[in-house]
Amino acid sequence: MPNTVARQALPTPEALRPWVAGIGALSVDGGPTEPFAHLPETATKVIVRTGADGVHGTLVVGPRARALYRRGRRHVRCTEVLLAPGTVRPLLGVSAVELAGRAVALADLPGPAAGRLARDLGRLGPAEAVAGLAEVLPERLAADSDGPRTELLRAGVAALSVRAGHPPGRVSEVARELAVSERQLRYLFAEGVGLSPKHFARITRLRAVLDGASTASWAELAAATGYFDQAHLSADFRTLMGVPPRSYVTGRLPRAALCPSSGPR
C-alpha cells in the first residue's frame, strides 16, 4: 500500500473548537521509496510549514475530490489545521468551493480577512501556529459567524457521514429531514464545504473503506458503508483513488498516477 501522509494528531485548544475540526503535525525527513498518497479530503486546511531551507510559509489547501500520489520533499515540517464546515468564508473571506482542488499561498487570497491572517501567521513556524491561532481567531470569528446556517450545514455534514458503521443518508432524505430543498442543501455545501453533498458522502464512505481495509473484506466494507455491492465499491474506489482497490493495497500504481513532487499537500 502507498504511504499515506503520516500525521500526528494534536490537541485542539478549547478556544478553537467551534471553528477547527482537527489539528495535525506532519514531518518528512527522507526521500520515501514509495509514493505518498494524498487521499480525497472534505476539509479545507490552513498549513503552516517550514522547508529544508528554514523558510516559513502558510498555504490554504481546499477539499480534494480525488487522490494524488506524490514523492515527498525532504526535511519538511508542517502543522495542518482542518477548518470545520462553515468556517472558510468568515476566516478567509472566500467560499469553500473557490478553493476546491487548489493549494494557494494564504497571502495570495483576496480580501482583508486572509491578509490579516497571513500577517498573524507570517512569522510563526509550525510549532507556534496553533497558539497563534488560538489567540486571534475567537474574537475575530465570533462576530462573523452565521450560527443558524452553520448549524444547518453541520447537521447535513453529520447526516452524510459514515458514523459508527451507519452509512451516509441519501441526499434527498437528508434535505427533507433538514426541511430544505436539495438545491438549498447543495448551496450550503458549496459555500461551507466546497463539495456537493453527493461527493462529500462519497469521500466519507471511501475514507471509511480505507480505514477498514486491513481488517475486513471488500464485501464486508461495501455492506457496512452503504454500497449496493462490492462491484459498486470497486468502481467508486477506482474513480476517487485512480486505481482499483487491490492495486492500491499492494502498491501497484501506474506511472501516470504519480504527480511531480511539490511538497506536502
TrEMBL record:
Signal peptide: none annotated. Residues 170-251 form the HTH araC/xylS-type domain. Pfam families: HTH_18 (PF12833). Keywords: DNA-binding, Transcription, Transcription regulation. This is Helix-turn-helix domain-containing protein. It comes from Streptomyces hintoniae.
